[in-house]
Amino acid sequence: MNSWGDRRFVAWARVACLVGVCLFCATRSPGDEAGLGETSARYYRELRSRGLHRLAESYCLERLARRDLPAAERADLTLELSRTLEDHAERATGSEQEQLWTRAFAVVSDLLASEPDNPRRIVLEVQRACLPASIGHTRRLRSDLEPFDTTLRQRAVETLETAVAALRDIEPRLEAPPAKTKSAHPGSLRPAERKAAQLQVRFRLAVALLDLAHLRVDPAAERKAAVVEAQKLLKGVGESAEDDTLVWRARMEFVQGCLLLDDFARTQRTLDALEQADPPAEFVDRLLALRVRLLLAQKEFRSALALLKQREQAPGIVPGELQALAVEVALADWRSRHPESDARLSP
User: Fold this and answer.
1) 275-305, pLDDT tens digit by residue?
2) Are the CB atoms for 116 and 164 separated by under 8 Å?
3) How far does the chain reach from its first CA to its final CA, in angstroms?
4) Are 72 and 118 in contact (CB under 8 A)?
5) pTM metric for this prediction
6) Interior CA angle at 182 toward 36 and 178, to 5°?
7) Phi, psi torsion values for 182, nearest 5 degrees
8) Cα–Cα distance between 246 and 238 in angstroms, integer?
9) Whole domain around residue 33: which residue ranges?
């Protein structure tokens, strides 16, 4: 660890740890059992967004090792640990990815088994229900890259079916409890937390339904029913969520549903409206990808390639999705101009 980059990372990590300690001290007081504050939760999200999974994991484990940790805080730290392992798995491959998923499940299941009366038990149950949706989505994306691997495709379908069942089961349990139980324990979910969890479950359920519709070769009526249900859920999330990121994610997935239904006119109208709505920077490339997918579905390959070329010449790193789309569109364009050669490429 002699390079300047390594020394800078260590220095940044130390500062991050110090900031984390300060945040916990600022958001908690002795005897407080309301769980982690939003500031602390945001701290973990920022670590994950920067790829600092091992740092976030080590800090969670350090806190969880304390014997005097209140039950509510232990639940929230376990949730952050599981989310960190889940996010890390999405960026890993092979056996490491599978191990991270297994650990993400295990830390939640272990606490649920050891503390059945934890006041924030429901947040752990939500995470356990959401994990198969995350795993299934990742496997669906891999299946897109390996379309002839039927085993991978079937694994993705089975995982997503498990996710849909689990999410359907947990969603009604997040309805507001009777008034007499709302303050049963100081660590219980606040109304705003319960609503946020329910919207997150509905979003995950919608995406899982879209993933299944993408993978399955079901009768058209069944696929349409799944997509329509997903879009109804996404519309509700987009109208109710206070988290701007979740709102835009729901909008992106709604467009994906329009594409799955081959409703090109509605896809076009929705994309036009979203592009005029001043989307956050993190969603600009995602909107472009959806625009390219629309042109690809309409067999307007040259227009799609022109958009991708324009993005390539613009500032900033071109994300992997757009790079993969560039290859897909170029291949589709070539096949459209060489149909006789395409027959020889078929498996």
Assistant:
1) 999 999 999 999 999 999 999 999 999 999 9
2) no
3) 48
4) yes
5) 0.85
6) 140
7) -65, -30
8) 7
9) 10-89+99-119
What is each CA distance from 96 to 24, 93, 101, 104, in whole angstroms?
Answer: 31, 6, 9, 12
> Rounded to an integer, what distance in angstroms lies between the CA atom of residue 248 and that of residue 338?
39
The two tokens of residue 21 are 């300690």
- 253 domain residue, yes or no: no
In the prediction, which pLDDT does 87 show? 96
Q: Quick count: other Cβ atoms within 10 Å of Cβ 203? A: 26
Round to whole Å and give the CA distance between 113 and 108: 9
Question: Residue 88, Cα to own-chain centre: how many angstroms?
Answer: 12
Residue position matching structure tokens 């005897």: 31
Count of domains observed in the chain: 2
Which pLDDT tens digit goes with each residue over 168-202? 999 999 986 655 554 556 678 889 999 999 999 99
Report how far residue 282's alpha carbon sits from residue 248's, in angstroms, rounded to the nearest whole number: 10
- Structural domain includes residue 306: yes
